[in-house]
Amino acid sequence: xxxxxxxxxxxxxxxxxxxxxxxxxxxxxxxxxxxxxxxxxxxxxxxxxxxxxxxxxxxxxxxxxxxxxxxxxxxxxxxxxxxxxxxxxxxxxxxxxxxxxxxxxxxxxxxxxxxxxxxxxxxxxxxxxxxxxxxxxxxxxxxxxxxxxxxxxxxxxxxxxxxxxxxxxxxxxxxxxxxxxxxxxxxxxxxxxxxxxxxxxxxxxxxxxxxxxxxxxxxxxxxxxxxxxxxxxxxxxxxxxxxxxxxxxxxxxxxxxxxxxxxxxxxxxxxxxxxxxxxxxxxxxxxxxxxxxxxxxxxxxxxxxxxxxxxxxxxxxxxxxxxxxxxxxxxxxxxxxxxxxxxxxxxxxxxxxxxxxxxxxxxxxxxxxxxxxxxxxxxxxxxxxxxxxxxxxxxxxxxxxxxxxxxxxxxxxxxxxxxxxxxxxxxxxxxxxxxxxxxxxxxxxxxxxxxxxxxxxxxxxxxxxxxxxxxxxx
Length: 474
What we know:
Helix content: 55-70%
Structural class: mainly alpha
Strand order of the largest sheet: 1-2
Distance between the termini: 36 Å
Order of helices and strands: HHHHHHHHHHHHHHEEHHH
Shape: globular
Largest sheet: 2 strands, antiparallel
Number of helices: 17
């Protein structure tokens, strides 16, 4: 047995042992979630009166680190086929396993059956499946039936990898809700509205950040303007809101009319935005409709009637932040970009003003998620002022914006190495420099966009296909 074969056998054995551990965890998760006594939970309540103990705090922190930081970083490293993808994901798996057990070993506050505990098994099943697919790809089996199976495994690994960050975000929200015993009974509908819409604003901000920093090549290839996609989503979301914000056939209560009218203006404006996003010749065209819709939504939410003074002030700041996001988006398109897709042909160049619209969407999302009735009642009882509360939520927005920028920086560094920058004066023919074949950086973009998360390649393959090796070969 050669040294290389021995190393691969040892690595395979190590991964097999890790897999066995994950199987045990999954089977354990199928049993009773907790063996804690629930007699300490008052009747009609979701949690006991005890404080959260240190073990549960450690569980919270390390699961945020694993699912909120390590796995997303590993996902990006997989997209760019970095040799660090596997080590980072292994580290995240180990941390997640430790956190999972700690979540079942804590004392202190006890919880009634809840969505966080129920969804944990599904999330760990996804992690288990991702590890299985990753091990298969790492073995690099390509002969016989494996030749036909492998491409489907690559696709499945990529799909699960894309879903994991979203599922992790949902589970973290479930964890916060469960820890405080919120969103039950009559509060459920209001909670759903705040957390879904708040997450949507943050998701929109993340998409704008991606398109701003690394998505211009993809956007140009679609032959559509960014406002086409924005307006399409706005119109669809407006249709949903129009028919779900009020229980038709019953009396109009509280803010039903305001929510329904907001849905109506969304789909009306969205249809207009779709129409204005095309030129007469069918080419892409920028427009201001999505920015106007965001501005109008912020204005409407800033005047949303509330029962608590703190809630009124937080909703006002949320509305002002959303209005600012819409206004800055309008200014960006009309005056900074002057209706162009970017400020230059170089996709790496951005204007500092362009960071404002996405960041304000992050902040608006956190403000809206933090403005539910129960949260406002809790903050008011603790004598927390709206200034302190808003600053904390803005701090979270800054941190998330930083993290997204770091991940996109990692992607850009691997996809567009500094040494591959082209002279803008270089003559072109047939879309290529001097009429020759694609440059290494263009091949890197194509490879990275396939999103195999298939950094799970043998070392030899990584040397052959990695972007940096392509540069050396050229």
